[in-house]
Amino acid sequence: MSEEILKLPPPPADARVAYGSDPNQFLDLRLPRTKGPHPLAINIHGGYWRTKYNLEHAGHLCAALAAKGIATANLEYRRVGNEDGAWPNTFADIRAAYRFLRQHAAKHSLDSQRIVVMGHSAGGQLALCLAAHESSVKQVISLAGVVDLQRAYQLHLSNDAVVEFLRGTPREIPDHYREADPMHLSLPQARQWLVHGSSDDVVPPAFSRDYVSAKQKRAGKEKEDVHLLEISGADHFDLIDPRTSAWKQIEQVILQLSA
Fold first, then answer.
1. Least C-beta-crowded within 10 Å: which of 50, 57, 185, 245?
2. Cα–Cα distance between 153 and 231 in angstroms, integer?
3. HSE on the CB side for 84, CA within 13 Å?
């Protein structure tokens, strides 16, 4: 199946809500049919931070979670190619959407104390970065995340996507890499799950492996609660396709963190 999920029309959202004035500052809400307040999964889609990909394909996993009793907010945000896209505005949008959801949780029958932030691919970087900069994020999941931006640059992933996103190389703009790179950020308050497929040829599985290893070796106040789930045989897009066996394992992690 692999990339087929990118083209398959998703089930409709229950509501599209603007969290800012830009056309790309909105989120799609999907709510369980049961009575709230509901736990909430905030999803950040991938696409190497570029406008080529939008939030639509992530509607499938969001609908699957809503059917399991978890409300979902699928975020759109300014990307490379949009006016004012790229760093720091892309990340500013993620923070604004997160704060908006917490502020308006009661209005949508959401439980502001049970929030999981998750992201796929480039969205994994944004999810972990959010947890590093917003201390109220307690549960975060990276699905095949680009979680080491220095290495993404060294490997020239997706034709130097990280250089476009951060507006330069590590030598040119070291501050941007310091602010954005999950590998070098501290997330002491958040329980983290790094999920990767062993057959991922878009983002190397070693990104998640090495991230978890590095974070687990930290000591004292820098020690982090970080876990790895590597799914044998799964590719980059299996992790966001509810029709795959890989998704069943991911769904269990999300349900546990939302309990």
1. 245
2. 25
3. 11
- Partners of residue 119 on adjacent β-strands: 44, 142
Mean pLDDT of 103-116: 96
User: The tokens of 145 are what?
Assistant: 């995340």
Interatomic CA distance for residues 259 and 255, integer angstroms: 6
Token representation of residue 11 = 């089930």
pLDDT in tens, 45-70: 999 999 999 999 999 999 999 999 99
In contact, 255 and 141? CB cutoff 8 Å: no
Residue 145 near residue 207 (C-beta atoms within 8 A): yes
Distance CA 80, CA 167 (A): 10
CA distance 230 to 45: 20
- Structural domains in the chain, CATH included, are 2-258 (3.40.50.1820)
Find tokens 């034709």 and name the residue. 159
